[in-house]
Amino acid sequence: MALLTRHPIDKLTLDLNGPDGNAFVLLAYAQRMAKEMGLTKAELEAIMADMKSSDYKHLVETFDANFGSVIDLVLPRKGL
To answer: How is residue 72 annotated by DSSP?
Structure first.
């Protein structure tokens, strides 16, 4: 057993109901997170291309698939 003073993974939460739900904001977070996670330029470009390849729902799902381990998304009330 370990006694922790904080959760080992401090996850950021983005509420997609507000300004953080803007597609351009999510793309900017993806760039920042990729850099912090040490992804290569090619890996980032592939993720960004995939995020931009379809609609908003796909962008959010792709973001979550790649960065969900470090960022939690609060989905819009009306759904994606």
So the answer is: E
Per-residue model confidence as pLDDT tens digits over 9-68: 678 899 999 999 999 999 999 999 999 999 999 999 999 999 999 999 999 999 999 999
Please give the full DSSP string across 39-64, using - where no structure is assigned.
--HHHHHHHHHHHHTS-HHHHHHHHH
Question: How many whole angstroms separate alpha carbon 51 and alpha carbon 42?
Answer: 14
* Encoded tokens for 66: 């790649």
DSSP β-bridge partners for residue 15: 74
Answering whether pTM is above 0.70, one says yes
Q: Say which amino acid occupies 4.
A: L
Alpha carbon distance 6, 33 (integer Å): 21
75 Cβ contact list (under 8 Å, min separation 6) = 16, 60
